[in-house]
Specification:
Blueprint: H1 2-25, H2 31-77, E1 78-90, E2 93-106, H3 115-119, E3 128-140, E4 146-147, E5 157-160, E6 166-167, E7 176-179, E8 184-185, E9 189-199, E10 210-218, E11 227-234
Antiparallel strand pairs: 1-2, 2-3, 3-9, 4-8, 5-6, 5-10, 7-9, 10-11
Helix pairs in contact: 1-2
Length: about 240
């Protein structure tokens, strides 16, 4: 804006000087006309310069304000979005946790519900809580078929955080998890999914995170109880 006004003033001065010289040369009685013309030109240039500049400034301010509000809202809801390189194995099952997302969640925002919220007793949910999403990959390197629905305790994977809190689908709020994968993993294949944990603690402890794997598969064509024992994988 200052640049435009400076250019307008410079243009006025140049016009004024030129017209003044012409007025003196062509007789002084024309001086008043040249002065009026010069001032009129200055006013028109300033008006022309101010209108679009002011509008543009307001638009930019509005855009910046919207971007700031959007950024603040995102920062408020998303506490952590962290890629991980956690890898471990037990009896031929390779498990990798690739990312953890901790999101601040409002109980009233039912549109943001996942299957975790749909399967827990909603009366247990406080007004605000945190949803911890652990994204994982399972690679079945055995010759056995893994059926994650045929488990002893109801969960193929059980998460234990750095505070020794064990999470399961039968747990109440604060010790509750929901595995988004329920099905078979064929021999020498892999699947990707996530576990949702609902907790009031935004500082989910990833130190010495452990995952209990229920079993490592069943022999194809045999009884579903014919599975090899699993074990516990500790990530450091």
């Amino acid at each position: 804006m200052e640049t435009i006004l400076g250019a307008a003033v410079l243009l006025f001065l140049l016009t004024f000087v030129v017209f003044l010289v012409l007025a003196i040369v062509q007789r002084k009685q024309h001086l008043k006309k040249w002065l009026l013309f010069s001032f009129g030109s200055l006013i028109l240039v300033i008006i022309f310069a101010l209108i679009p500049s002011d509008t543009k400034t307001k638009d930019n301010t509005s855009e910046k304000s919207s971007a700031t509000k959007s950024s603040q809202a995102k920062d408020k809801s998303m506490v952590l979005n962290k890629p991980l390189q956690y890898k471990g194995s037990v009896n031929g099952v390779d498990l990798s946790i690739t990312k953890v997302v901790i999101k601040k969640t409002d109980k009233r925002d039912t549109n943001d519900y996942t299957d975790a919220e749909e399967n827990i007793n909603k009366n247990e949910l406080p007004k605000e809580y945190y949803r911890v999403s652990l994204f994982y990959t399972i690679n079945n390197t055995t010759d056995r078929e893994i059926d994650t629905s045929s488990t002893n305790g109801g969960d193929y994977l059980k998460v234990i955080d750095g505070n020794n809190m064990t999470y399961s689908s039968s747990g109440t709020f604060g010790a509750y998890e929901f595995d988004n994968y329920l099905g078979k993993i064929e021999p020498h294949t892999s699947i990707k999914s996530s576990i949702e944990i609902l907790t009031s603690n935004k500082n989910f402890n990833l130190q010495n995170l452990r995952v209990v794997v229920d079993h490592t598969g069943v022999t194809p064509g045999t009884d579903s109880d014919d599975f090899a024992p699993g074990g516990t994988i500790t990530f450091k």
